[in-house]
Amino acid sequence: MDAVLFKAAAEGDIGPFENYQTCLDQLLTPDENTILHVYLGNQSREPESTDFVDKILEMCPQLLLQANKKGEIPLHLAARYGHSNVVKVLIDRAKARPTDPESGVTEAKKMLRMTNEEQDTALHEAARNRRSHVVEILTKEDRPELSYSANVHGETPLYIAASSWGQEQEKVIDEILANCISVLDYGGPNGRTALHAASAVGDHERLVTHYAAFFSTWLNISVVKVLLEYDASAAYIAETEKKRTALHIAAIQGHVNAMKEIVSRCPACCELVDNRGWNALHYVVASKRTEVFKECLRIPLLDRLKTKKDNKGNTPFHLIAALALKLDNWLLVFRFTEEGIYGLNKQKLSIKDIYNGRLAEIQEILESLEDVGSGPFGCRRRIVLEETNEKNKKEKDASNKA
């Protein structure tokens, strides 16, 4: 495809192509993008007219399903960029084609399920880019048969939608839940579900305003509510690797409102622990948010977790004892702790023993708290920031005293 034709395609100028009707499918860019790929990828907003797409497909019907090097057909691009009117045209064109006599699958449904090199369908693209109008069209068009497929990263469209943020996020999720058969059986990489993702995602606009005061992200609770209303069993699904549930994820992020929502709808999920035996309250301690920890103790189901031991026999308060030596805000929590009810860990240490300076054990616990901050839903950045601020505060206090 030379520069003149590329420019014409990008601008939706049909004229230059009228002399190429017999070989339009041979006009390709180095990435094997066709005229339609170029056109759809260069529209900054939804085209007011679908004339260009209609006329090109009239001239060369095979362009409808012709893929580029990445395996993307025009429907992938129309979905990605939110060109809902073009999506309708492409579907109507596919519907006009005869049904495969062997499979009985219509060309429209075949097109809707076509995947690119990463196994993304057009619905994956629409969900990732929060194109709610396109999601509505795609899901309604393929029902009632549409069930979930994951891409090469293990992501379903619902998982992708729940992992993102933005004004259209809730509507995208609503459309998927309303029109698809299976949404939470398998949702994301490493065994995570859409609920795991929703429990971790924050609203970045609010983060800018409130970060300095709270060192926290703010969760869109409505997404968690929608997912739990649709299938509460999602709260009991654990990741493949670390065996964390949505409650663990909400806890490490300090999202106490999400924790309340999950616990109120799925109380038994409080019993679930990760691969180290940590319950949700261990994770709250690891978040280093004392205000969240205190709030959790006001929730009876979470308060009962304070005496539960992990695989090494440490209760959440054993972790607090180690933190109390390092962070002043946890020292205040520790000072008002009733010691006897927490017992001894497998090293036969009480919380008082740890606080009184068994350095090897303290270092091991502190390292375990750091380790929980790694990974896609971790909080290492917040831990580093809090420790840096704590260090700066102490240095400032020492300077003032001097």
TrEMBL record:
Keyword annotations: ANK repeat
Presence of keyword Magnesium: no
InterPro entries for this protein: Ankyrin_rpt (IPR002110), Ankyrin_rpt-contain_sf (IPR036770)
Each ANK repeat, start to end: 70-93
Name of a matching Pfam family: Ank_2
Entry-linked PANTHER family: NO MECHANORECEPTOR POTENTIAL C, ISOFORM D-RELATED, PROTEIN ACCELERATED CELL DEATH 6-LIKE
Protein name per UniProt: Ankyrin-3-like
Source lineage: Eukaryota, Viridiplantae, Streptophyta, Embryophyta, Tracheophyta
Gene from which this protein is expressed: LOC105117172
